[in-house]
Amino acid sequence: MKKIFKTVIMLTIFGFTTIICNGQTVDEIIDKHIEAHGGMENWDKVQSIKITGQFTSFSETYPFSEIKARPDYYYSTFQMGQHQITEAGRGNDFWTINPWFDLSFPRKVNSVEEGIIHQKAEFCTPFFNYKERGFTVAYEGTEELEGVDVFKLVLTCNNGHVETWFLDTETYLEYMSRSDWSDFASPTPQEAIYDDFRQVGDIIIPFYMERVFSIRHRVIEIEDVELNVEPDAAIFGMPLSEEMQKLKFLEGTWDVSLDVLTRSGAWANADSTTSIIEFLPNKNMLLETISYIRFFPVDKLISWTYNTDTQKYRVGVFNDFYSNAEMLQGNFNNDTLTIENTEIKWGEDTENPGYVKYIFSNISDDGFLLETASSMDKGETWAVRQKFTYTRKLN
Fold this sequence. Notes:
The protein is mostly beta strands. The chain folds into two domains: 2-236, Lipoprotein localisation LolA/LolB/LppX (outer membrane lipoprotein receptor (LolB), chain A, Clam), CATH 2.50.20.10; 242-392, Lipocalin (Beta Barrel), CATH 2.40.128.20. 13% of the residues lie in helices and 53% in strands. The chain has helices at 2-20, 26-36, 40-44, 111-121, 242-245, and strands at 48-57, 60-69, 73-80, 83-90, 93-97, 107-108, 136-145, 148-156, 162-168, 174-183, 186-200, 203-213, 216-227, 252-261, 267-279, 286-294, 296-307, 312-319, 324-333, 336-340, 355-361, 367-375, 383-392. A 13-stranded antiparallel β-sheet has the order 6-5-4-3-2-1-13-12-11-10-9-8-7, with helices on one face. It starts with a helix and ends with a strand.
């Protein structure tokens, strides 16, 4: 108990020491830092920023652009080597298209990449409203960096991310920062230099940023800054992949008529029901929820994804009545979409107990026809057993 009390006393003394160092408190240094950037009042008037310029990586320079908007919106495109990269999102829902991973489709970022985008999404430095956002700052005195006297501030974000900032003791503008960065989605220490501060409207921002991490060297040279632009909100949401875009015709709320093949060989209406088909937020996945009656009530969840390796849609059909799941795959053939389970591997010693095919045709903005067929000879011949006619439900 005495040891804990002694530790608390020492921390308290250390806290007071950091406050009175150089006769300035942490907040006084930060206030002057913000004032050097144009002042909080002027920054509060800025709701969005569009930045364009040149981005250098792998010793090659290409144009880049980024948009930052309150609260926590970010969108950026830049060229890195032979690949165009996009990073975007809001809050904790960030995504990227990064062909360096041999992935051409949009994907959610991992925690390392998310931390980097949070840093990029800052309007200028993270000291703006840092207390309101749950950040803490520790002042660790002054030191000299490359002949420049700097204040050393250690910032801890509300997610535990730690950044060390060095502010010029004369201008109070940032000179350098150190923090974790991302090298091919893995964490690595980085050092960033800031220079060429210019006035845009009533605010001041650095037009030059140089970043070194691992064996990488990146340079950003800003050419133009626009304040309070009105970006299209759609750019921040994760887009669908090209193949999932083709399934947009399925999306909606539907009136569904079910016709079944009777034992006499005639078609008869079995049920009229509804279906909801929607893309899951920030995911390249489509989900259908449908309930219908064919002799007995049947509830189904049907999920759609696209497998880039096989270049086929992969569909999971979960049937509550039979407590079973079917996996199907297939693709478009002209205006018809066909998926089946004849090529699905069920295990080394397990044979597929039955073959199923779904055929989507008569596709239009107002509806489509789904025919379900079965085969008893491993897909040599098929018999259509059910017809679902989907008609878009009017509001």
